[in-house]
């Protein structure tokens, strides 16, 4: 019933390794979109433009933990809590499964679109969430435990992809400045968007 696409800010090798580990049995993931200059800017506020996927937005859903990434596609996006591990029970995946199952059933029976479903589903709440860019935006949130706790976690979250990217850039700059020899650089070959690889999930029904 669904085409699953993994879209992550992770680099290609990392993203492919993760997909190989989580999709070992059913081959449920159709495509992977990884970090690429077509969409990942490396600065706060980068977003994932769903039109790049070339899919019908009436049947495309993106599940994200970073609010900026759904900017421009708010009625196609669902914001979930960050997964930090630990001993606390995490109910996010079962909740996502229940939501997608309900969406697919209603789409098949009623012809409901993803934007219509997101704006009317009792499983979601519309909340004003702080972004990496420094502003706030309204997002439809899957707050499976407590809406106030969800909001507080989003206020305190750090975008690790940006932090890691900044650390790599700083390390590269330090290496260049400390070297007495000229450093030759090359531009990676551009890859098409469809087979790219990146960390949210996009689903088309």
Basic shape: globular
Query: Percent of residues in helical segments?
Result: 25-40%
Strand element count: 7
Contiguous helical run count: 5
The radius of gyration over CA amounts to 18 Å
- Calculate the terminal CA-CA distance, rounded to whole Å: 6 Å
- What is the spatial order of strands in the main beta sheet? 2-1-7-3-4
Low-confidence stretches: 181-199
Oligomer: single chain
Instruction: Estimate the strand proportion.
Output: 15-25%
Q: Report the major sheet.
A: 5 strands, mixed
User: Strand pairing plus helix content: what structural class?
Assistant: alpha/beta
What is the overall pLDDT average? Answer: 80
Keywords:
single chain; 205 residues; alpha/beta; 5-stranded mixed sheet; two-stranded antiparallel sheet; 5 helices
Please provide a written account of the structure.
This protein is of the alpha/beta class. 32% of the residues lie in helices and 17% in strands. The chain contains five helices and seven strands, in the order E-H-E-E-E-H-H-E-E-H-H-E. A five-stranded mixed sheet has the order 2-1-7-3-4. A hairpin with a 5-residue loop joins strand 5 and strand 6. It is globular and about 60 Å long.
